[in-house]
Design a protein that fits this description.
Keywords: Lyase. By secondary structure, the chain is α+β, with helices and mostly antiparallel strands. It contains 3 helices and 4 strands; from the N terminus they run H-E-E-H-E-E-H. The chain has a single domain, classed as Transcriptional coactivator/pterin dehydratase (Gyrase A, domain 2, 2-Layer Sandwich), CATH 3.30.1360. It is globular, with a radius of gyration of 13 Å.
Length: 101
């Protein structure tokens, strides 16, 4: 059964609990800055591990000292679902341990 898309107002309300995450069209996004390229690479690996645990994968971009995520649910027609917000919350929880801000 495909995931149900969330209404825009619910997404916006829930994003208030996820500082730095924004709604851009039909996806939620966040860019983290890290102290070094090595720290950014380590954070990227940790995010990939979380994605595998949740069986929910985002677009993940590694820059010199940045990591950008862009998340929506393909099974919901490319809309934002509960799974996207759960992934964002998990990433946000581990980010400080990598020096991400």
């Amino acid at each position: 059964m495909p995931a149900a898309p969330l209404p825009r107002n619910e997404i916006e309300n829930r994003l208030s609990e996820l500082p730095g995450w924004t709604l851009e069209e039909d996806r939620i996004t966040r860019t983290y800055r890290l102290p070094s390229h090595f720290a950014a690479a380590g954070f990227t690996v940790h995010v990939a591990q979380i994605q595998d645990e949740l069986n929910h994968h985002s677009d993940l971009t590694l820059g010199y000292n940045t990591v950008a995520l862009s998340v929506n649910t393909h099974d919901a027609g490319g809309k934002v679902t509960e799974s996207d917000l759960a992934l964002a919350a998990r990433v946000m929880a581990v980010a400080p341990g990598h020096g991400a801000r």
